[in-house]
Prior knowledge:
Layout: H1 3-15, E1 20-21, H2 28-32, E2 45-48, H3 52-65, E3 69-72, E4 88-91, E5 98-101, E6 106-110, H4 115-123, E7 127-128, H5 139-145, H6 152-155, E8 162-168, E9 174-178, H7 183-189, E10 198-205, E11 207-208, E12 212-221, H8 225-238, E13 243-251, E14 266-274, H9 278-291, E15 296-303, H10 304-307, E16 320-328, H11 333-342, E17 352-358, E18 379-388, H12 391-408, H13 428-435, H14 437-450
Parallel strand pairs: 2-4, 3-4
Antiparallel strand pairs: 1-2, 5-6, 6-10, 7-11, 8-9, 8-10, 12-14, 12-15, 13-14, 13-17, 16-18, 17-18
Helix pairs in contact: 1-3, 8-11, 11-12, 13-14
This protein binds flavin-adenine dinucleotide.
The site of flavin-adenine dinucleotide has 36 residues, from strand 3, helix 5 and strand 10.
Amino acid sequence: MTQTAAGGIETLRAAMTGLVLVPGDEGYHDARRVWNAGIDRHPAVIARCRSTQDVVAAITLARERGLEISVRGGAHNAAGTAVADDGLMLDLSELREVTVDPEARRVRVGGGALLSDMDAATQAHGLAVPAGLIGHTGVGGLTLGGGMGWLTRRFGLSIDSLVAAEVVVADGRVLRAAQGEHPDLYWALRGGGGNFGVVTSFEFRLHEVDPMVQFGLFFWPLDQGGEALRLAREVIADMSLGINAVVGALNAPPAPFVPEQHHLRAGYVLLLTGFGADDEHGQFVQRIRETLPPLFDMVTPMPYVELQKMLDEGNAWGFHCYEKCTYIENLSDEVIEVVTEQVPLKKSPMSLVLFYRLDGAYSRAGDNDTAFSGGRSPRFSAFVVGFAPNADLLDADRGWVRAFWDALRPHAVGGGDGYINGMVDYGEDRLRSAYGAAKYDRLARIKGEYDPENIFHLNANIKPA
Length: 465
Ligand SMILES: Cc1cc2nc3c(=O)[nH]c(=O)nc-3n(C[C@H](O)[C@H](O)[C@H](O)COP(=O)(O)OP(=O)(O)OC[C@H]3O[C@@H](n4cnc5c(N)ncnc54)[C@H](O)[C@@H]3O)c2cc1C
């Protein structure tokens, strides 16, 4: 730690209600860890904020001492933007309060809450905010990038339900961004990432979601990839908004519902979830089983909160990750050819590719209604994820991720660089391509207004105009 940083620690400790950790303190090493085990950085200071005032104090100290600021929500970002060597880590992991107002159909969520916190509190009232697939993802980073998951077809992205946010901006002011209150900031927060300040709380509109859903998982071997993906395409084309699907390729987990001889076997998967559409879900199950009998399947009702945690273990902390993503309009024969050529080439059994369906309510928002990095025409968000238990195996799959993405790119909608929450390489050109030039320039102007010195730059960074 520099002399100047050391000098300010006691001042910060006195100003904050939350803990301030420096190297050598108990808990420092746990606090600096992030989800991607490939990230091993040592911040000079970790400010574990418990209140909006703590966030203001930490930003003030960082500015005075010239420390780079990183912001940690759920720490899931695969690029590890939550932590920087020698910087000040603004740790929001204790800002996790979730307050539901069932009458008003609103929920206020702390800036460091996890999806599982939000789902548990809202589902107690039969309500939900559309979010992502993994319970230990942070609401903060997920929402600021957009937020897509099982409910996106019915209710849109997380940002489409965001009605307000409390934000500490670069000069220490605490602002409320909403329709009619700093509307430019409100627009930019809905997709522009962590560029515009630290969100201490999010306020979302809630939607009715029946606590029980119908779930189906169908798995086919590698040599049936083409047929499986074509069947998935047909099913997806026929789904009402009561059903959603995620399709992709991965290795079968060593889970009790998987016959032992298929544990860790590579193949193709279709996940099909029904929300209040039991009959339709049942008909799809029958159609899938009759058309192309899977190697194994698992069909069961389950609580929505369990669905939201079902993939947590397979995506646990402590593994190495590198990913790229893009949007494609359809699972065309050409795309299926790319996928079935690339999938067998991966080296790590944990690496995977997933296609999320985006249409319905997703497409009811206009392209420029929010700052989201993607157009709103119906499409799939394709995530190509290198995932491995150690750095060497991940290195072996970095090239696979890039080659797969290159091969998908001719079929991409937009610039080719997709959703900012599925990227780890953040060059300015990539971000311009992801947002499109006009949206990027508008974001850069707003950045210039709220963070002209770019103190919040450890993120998918928009340079201030
Ligand atoms: C296994 C896995 C599964 C995923 N699944 C999905 C999915 O289903 N759907 C989806 O949409 N995305 C998904 N993502 C992507 C995810 O949305 C991003 O990784 C997101 O950045 C995670 O947010 P976080 O708060 O956990 O991360 P962090 O690493 O803590 O934060 C990432 C960045 O977001 C910003 N940030 C976070 N919180 C705040 C805040 N309160 N105020 C200001 N800035 C903040 C900061 O710039 C920070 O550096 C997944 C990621 C992983 C690794």
